[in-house]
Amino acid sequence: xxxxxxxxxxxxxxxxxxxxxxxxxxxxxxxxxxxxxxxxxxxxxxxxxxxxxxxxxxxxxxxxxxxxxxxxxxxxxxxxxxxxxxxxxxxxxxxxxxxxxxxxxxxxxxxxxxxxxxxxxxxxxxxxxxxxxxxxxxxxxxxxxxxxxxxxxxxxxxxxxxxxxxxxxxxxxxxxxxxxxxxxxxxxxxxxxxxxxxxxxxxxxxxxxxxxxxxxxxxxxxxxxxxxxxxxxxxxxxxxxxxxxxxxxxxxxxxxxxxxxxxxxxxxxxxxxxxxxxxxxxxxxxxxxxxxxxxxxxxxxxxxxxxxxxxxxxxxxxxxxxxxxxxxxxxxxxxxxxxxxxxxxxxxxxxxxxxx
Length: 356
What we know:
- With 356 residues, the chain is α+β, with helices and mostly antiparallel strands.
- The chain folds into two domains: 148 residues, CATH 3.30.1330.10; 158 residues, PurM-like C-terminal domain (Phosphoribosyl-aminoimidazole Synthetase, Chain A, domain 2, Alpha-Beta Complex), CATH 3.90.650.
- 30% of the residues lie in helices and 22% in strands.
- The protein contains ten helices and 13 strands.
- The strands form three sheets. It has a seven-stranded mixed β-sheet with strand order 8-10-7-11-9-12-13, sandwiched between helices. A four-stranded mixed β-sheet has the order 1-6-4-5. Strands 2-3 form a two-stranded antiparallel sheet.
- A hairpin with a 5-residue loop joins strand 12 and strand 13.
- Helix 1 runs parallel beside helix 5 and helix 4 packs parallel to helix 7.
- The longest helix is centred in the middle third of the chain and has 18 residues.
């Protein structure tokens, strides 16, 4: 996770010692080298990272055979707590960046990893996070190829913050963006909303109730590939993370200058999530997700896309939840359970802080 000159083929002997992270693990000396070699390099385990240069290097020829454009994204993760039902900050950091690439139609290939570690963090917790990142990367078919490690004084951060950047390749002929929604298009989501936000609430111990809600954190690149195989001309796609479903729909409506109409009865929502929202006064439309995408596809492709999604493990609960109309432009409307209609606007403020 830093540049450590090595002779090719040298067998590394760095061994991480102690039980907690100290400032010396970020100081550039032997303790830092041991942290990098014994924990990050050994766990992430790939040829690009193993060289420990200041950058990862790739053959452009192999990239151009996959597509005609690069996609690049970056995100930072500050979730509290670090570990929650069904996931942790490491899994979140990998899948979140993979999904940001995937919803552009890109094939995700490589990730970077920047760690900001608070002095005093248990080494075993850091090792657990790194192992989770490796498992998530393997599931998504990507590699963590370069990165950086910083250690800050106790109190200067909250245990661990992670930044990941990702690079992928967009196949020729794929053009997905938020400005392509057209009247007559249909809106599809790949499953239940609000699971991640509800799981974080539960993990914080803010409710004295028992439930089985787990984060929906999962990579979506394989699902997107399945969707594009039956409808290469998918118009819009985005993962509904912070701000939830409502935010994504408003972004599409604004950028495409159309109206999006959804049906509350069609929204997939678990009873446990509904219950937490009722207790805390939250709106599930704005709860965070980490394994849900919203797609807008031409009407003639809708049934084929939906059927394909429902055959995929990440899309078994996919639903058509609405349609695109011409007016009122830049507006999201929802037909309610009571037979009325209401505007679904952008969230003012923040329902739940530090959920990703």
